[in-house]
């Protein structure tokens, strides 16, 4: 087999692997929906691709080094079940991580149209039926309120400061998510999918069947570079669409990000159910 044909095969299968993998697409959608710029979305996809390539290269390198030239790859069914179950569980975790980001950044969805304290105070006064003179600023109102409060404090009992119950009751998942960056999640998810995902078969089997270390390396490198680039482009495209929809209103921003997170959870649950029924390959190929 010529080098050109091997490179062409690696490019073709790299495209097919990304665009036909619901585990990749749903996870990339969850991550890229939170991106603020096109470069940020692209590099999230690239980080996923790099992690995915690390996993594939580890699997491929071990297979090429350990398996004799005449052998075929036969993975025990129990091992396949465990690895693919890990992929499903990780997609569900990724979806919950996306939901955490939605509510952790809920201040982004405030849409009262006020950008300054004066505007907020004016809007509140108008809603209460009180009209403010344009010559009177919120600062003078604040000073008057502070003066009245000072005179009243002498007659008021001292009240202990409120206890922040939310922070004390934060569960372990919320605490874990708050310490993780989106970039590190993308890289880790890519490694998990590269090691345990069914796409490893698509990437590794042709490399082993070539029976040549150099040609196998060329194929694997081409496959990994192509899939990484395609992941970056898909993340950029999905991120662009998400930002366009989100720019219409804060409500749409919330809906888009929540939909993307729930998509990953849905695919993860469906993945595990189909795996248990023995139908995963029939549906997701």
How would you describe this structure to a colleague?
Helices cover 76% and strands 0% of the residues. It is built from 13 helices and no strands. Helix 1 runs parallel beside helix 11 (213-246), helix 3 runs antiparallel to helix 11 (213-246) and helix 11 crosses helix 12. The longest helix has 34 residues, at 213-246.
C-alpha-based Rg, rounded: 27 Å
Spans with pLDDT under 50 lasting ≥5 residues? 111-117, 130-138, 159-170
The assigned structural class equals: mainly alpha
Terminal-residue CA separation: 27 Å
Q: Into which percentage range does the β-strand content fall?
A: under 5%
What share of residues is helical? over 70%
Name the overall outline. Answer: globular
Reported for the largest beta sheet, the result is:
none
Could you provide a short overview of the structure?
The protein is mainly α. Helix content is 76%, strand content 0%. The protein has 13 helices and no strands.
Q: Top keywords for this entry?
A:
about 280 residues
């Amino acid at each position: 087999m010529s080098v050109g044909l091997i490179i062409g095969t690696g490019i073709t299968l790299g495209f097919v692997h990304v665009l036909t993998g619901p585990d990749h697409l749903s996870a990339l959608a969850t991550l890229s929906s939170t991106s603020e710029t096109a470069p940020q979305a692209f590099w999230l996809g690239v980080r996923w691709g790099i992690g995915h390539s690390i996993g594939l290269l580890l699997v491929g390198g071990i297979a090429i080094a350990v398996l004799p030239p005449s052998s075929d790859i036969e993975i025990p069914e129990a091992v396949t079940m465990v690895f693919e179950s890990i992929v499903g569980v990780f997609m569900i975790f990724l979806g919950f991580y996306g939901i955490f980001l939605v509510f952790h950044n809920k201040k982004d969805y405030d849409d009262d149209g006020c950008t300054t304290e004066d505007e907020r105070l004016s809007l509140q006064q108008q809603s209460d039926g009180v009209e403010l003179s344009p010559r009177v600023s919120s600062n003078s109102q604040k000073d008057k309120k502070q003066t009245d409060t000072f005179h009243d404090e002498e007659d008021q009992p001292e009240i202990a400061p409120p206890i922040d119950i939310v922070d004390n009751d934060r569960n372990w998942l919320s605490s874990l998510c708050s310490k993780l960056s989106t970039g590190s999640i993308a890289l880790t998810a890519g490694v998990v999918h590269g090691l345990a995902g069914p796409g490893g078969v698509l990437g590794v089997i042709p490399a082993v069947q070539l029976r040549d270390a150099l040609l196998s390396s060329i194929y694997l490198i081409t496959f990994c570079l192509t899939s990484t680039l395609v992941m970056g482009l898909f993340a950029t495209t999905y991120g662009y669409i998400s930002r366009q929809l989100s720019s219409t209103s804060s409500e749409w921003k919330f809906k888009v990000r929540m939909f993307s997170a729930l998509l990953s959870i849905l695919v993860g649950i469906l993945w595990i159910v189909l795996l248990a029924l023995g139908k995963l390959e029939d549906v997701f190929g």
